[in-house]
Amino acid sequence: MALDPGIVPEGRRTFMQEVIAATPGGDPHLELCLQCGTCGGSCPSGPDMDHTPRQLFAMIAAGMREDVLKSNTPWFCVSCYYCVVRCPQEIHITDIMYTLKRMAIEEGYYRESSAAEAPDFSETFIDFVEHYGRSFELGLATRYHLKHHPLGMLKMAGMGLNMLIKGRMDLKPTRIEHLDQLQAILQKAKELEGKD
Amino acid sequence: MQHKPQEKPRIGVYICHCGTNIAGTVDVEEVARWAGELEGVVVARDYKFMCSSLGQDLIENDIKEKKLNRIVVAACSPLMHEKTFRGACQKAGLNPYFFEMANIREHDAWATDDKTAATFKAKALVEGAVNRVKFHMPLEPIPVDINPNTLVVGGGIAGITAALELANAGYHVYLVERSPSIGGHMAQLDKTFPTLDCSACILTPKMVDVGQHENITLLAYSEVEAVEGYLGNFTITVRKKARHVNEDLCTGCGICIEKCPRKVIDTEFEAGLGYRKVIYRPFPQAVPKYPVIDTENCTFFQRGKCRACQIFCPTKAIDFDQEDELITFQVGNIIIATGYDLFDARRIPQYGYGRLANVFTSLEFERMVNAAGPTGGRIVLRDGVTEPRSVAIIHCVGSRDKNYHEYCSKICCMYSLKFAHLVRERLPDAEVYNFYIDIRAPGKGYEEFYHRVLHEGAHLIRGRVAEVTDAAREPGEEGKLIVQVEDTLIGKQRRIPVDMVILSAGIEARKDSKEVAQLFKMGCDFDGFFVERHPKLDPVATMTEGVFIAGCAQGPKDIPDTVAQGAAAAARVAGLIHQGTVLMEPVRAYIHEDLCSGCRICNNLCPYNAIVFHEDRQKSEVITALCQGCGTCVAACPSGVISGAHFTNDQIFAQIEGVLWDVRAKATAPS
Amino acid sequence: MPNRYAYYPGCSLEKNARAYHISTLYVAEKLGVALEEVPDWNCCGATEYFAIAALPAYALVARNLALAQGMDWNGGQRHLVAPCSACFLNLSKTDHYMADSPQLAAQVNEALAAGGLHYDPGAVFVHHLLDVIVDDVGYEKVQEMVTKPLFGLRVAPYYGCLVTRPDYKHIHNEPEHPFCLDDLLAALGATVIDYPVKTACCGGHMTQISEDTALELIRRLLKAAADYRADAIVALCPMCQLNLDGYQAQVNKHFGTDYHIPILYFTQVMGLAFGATPEEIGIGKEFVDARPVLNKIQEKPPEEGKKRRKKRRDKQALPMPELLRTHTGRK
Lengths: 196, 671, 331
Fold this sequence. Notes:
heterotrimer, B: Alpha-Beta Plaits, 5-stranded parallel beta sheet, C: 4-stranded parallel beta sheet, 4-stranded parallel beta sheet, 16 helices, 9% strand, globular
């Protein structure tokens, strides 16, 4: 099977080839998985995943698109890179997890996973970045938690207050000077990626 | 300047189909038809298998009937069948060097799926061969006498086997071993899988044979320093390192060792698990029996005081002034059996070796279970006292991992299963866990041994261990080593607390294997293993005539395979010795002395020191017997007066012109 | 040492990790490291942007690289330093992948062009602050600046994930068990514990997504530090500091534990040894107050270590292999 997604027409790609093609930055070596379990053994949040990364790769190879994109596994990836440096086949596991998150959002499957709120956190975060050029913790915490954990918000409020008292949180976001420039760049990038 | 061929060429061209290997891509009929029209070609044919006897008959008959004086076969690589077709020429009375081969398989049919392009390239290669063969000259192979002595480098089980095979056949062997005793890694092992023979019990009789054999000159604690010459006539220089013990006087009584006041960690034979004296013999059955002084740690050598060994030696054999000795001798063939290094498990810090006391390497464990080892065969933790109640054995340490070695070390699965058996045997109450990616047990009795270990109650967990840690998370983990792994057959991360961890480290090439390869002019692969002439059909020969390889120096292998290679290498050498004389390719350089300006540029460039300079007449000369036909001098000569037989300028230019036939055709074609 | 670095503080250092920012500037000044802030830098996207869109995420990071490239370098090699591990990773990853994949580089630059910018992969050498201090400044220079050695203070060197992993530039060679921070802290006079989870994960953003998961990861780090009797954990990333410090009370509540381990930035610890007052380097802003443990600092080095070395080896014990240290640093 020719795995170079570059030479396989888009409509005829296997699920694995799609995942590889959607992962930029060099060959992610996904097809080389030996099923050794180093990733699943190393993962700090592995016990909370419904499939270990290794299982997910076998499922990708088997073309189980829906099950893969409904899995909570990518959303429990903490981006610690333990699996990446330990993988004996040099698979870009963290990057593949990011790819699966993007695919799950695009195809709407993430709502059925047990980490259905995770994308909202990411989206809220980048919303601030896109509107100010910097992240904004207070805004992020209030907006995201009010939406998903109104009760947890009370718990968080103590910490937030503490942050304010300790001078570790701003009440309003910082805006970069050339926000229009940044927005133009991001807009162009979205167009190029076909996500406008 | 191009010379004219001496006689009118009558060329036969044969295009091989090689089944569909060539004919599937190249239009062989078209190439044959086209070749038939080339100048000087008398007959051109295509045939299913040119290498078959019928194919060879075709050539022979055409030579006789059509009075052919040049033959071209377009088929596979000359490495495969040049000899076959030269033989056919010779049988028909034609000098075999009037033959030329065009490789239209590896260089053409196998390289593309494009039939038009492949057929086009086949024509180019055929025309190149046709043009070249017109300039071929009759040559005679050079007879070389084979010195019946053999050098064997490395005194492990591969070298021991090779040396004994040759010595028993009546030929003299110089066996050179770097460490103070022969025996190699096998001498360190306890039991051998799958039969559980005691390693020392089966090895030491062979070591004794080597020590006593009248046909073996054993040079232990020695290293090969220089190699000169070629097949049949190598001159070897060996540095015999100073033991500081006079071998003529020493009786091997061992009093010096007993009296030596200083102990150091033995990182060699005891794999770091035990101590040895500074004057020492690696192990009691060492061959030769003479001790050696480790000058780097010796109090006398470092501070000028002590002399305990000298004072107590009953035969006055201690010689602090002894110096290294250089020994030179002649051999006809060389067998390299330099073995392997164990992968350094400290390179994988997440397994904790060097940091966590109760993590051991496989070689440490071999020494530990050995009755003659530092613990007397007791399985204990690093404190030397406590018996473990649970043992984890981690497979594939440093193997099957692109971060370290991509290859499988081949022996680890089996020795890890052996360890599981030994733990269960010695400590029946201890739990044993083997962590594996795949169990590889392809050998006689190996799979059965695996089943036996399963039956004995070892826990086999499929998953490559992620880490070994002392960071306890739960009360049950306190004070233990925790092995964290994905149990891939369950699909869950597991943490298994154990007392002892054994790392089944893989095999890697010797650290200095690249230098050794250079010394003996062998090839060395990316991993540092020596390259065999052919991976299937010539596994113990190298690309250098007269240099053979055996054992783990060629690649990871177990004892049976190592012994088989040692014997195979010996058989290859014995065959050459028995022939007495071998015929070498007459591809040699020749200096036209009348035209030589005596500039001497070629003298130092020759990698084989085959060029001498005659001071009296100020001319250089190639010693044919030493020349390997590499062509360096031919290219370097500023006056262009060195020619390489069978690779003359005429031949090469003619071939290039032929290969570029289409360029010429286009240039002359009317536009 | 390069005579100047472009400084990318990142969003955290602006506010919640202000102490890291202050202490970085303090230490840099003492060591003669010239830092110049990248003009009008933007957020690196943390771990969030890559989850939503790939190319915009790379473009977001690349704008910072392009701005750094465009600073006035007088023809010299361009160096960029980030104290935040996540920023460091995103900057070096974008640089690395753009160099590795011409296709990505072309697309990112097409996006940058919409803002009149351009970045040449490899143009800027991206450093984490720790690497600059270890490899460019060096332990010797650090030691020269020590006026108040941290004798008697037991510290856990906590590297977290992203400085030694994935280590695109192969500076560390030891992603699992590094020693450079250990050696740096030892050079300050502190007693450095053999922290077994020194490169384990703090949980990152999991505090927001699955609190149970995050608290467990934080607990592991606190427990190991407590087991090894550390007075403080020394961190080099705002996320690690915030998780270990800000969630410590919640961990105690959740697991019924009672940890009080202050979490300091390595620059704060350096500042202390260089003679700074706690206020000068932002000590006091942490949730678990660090000031009580600072009283443990003694005038003289502790005796304990010396005595142990002299102890004769146990006759029965088997010898231990030597530990391998392979930090190569930047050559």
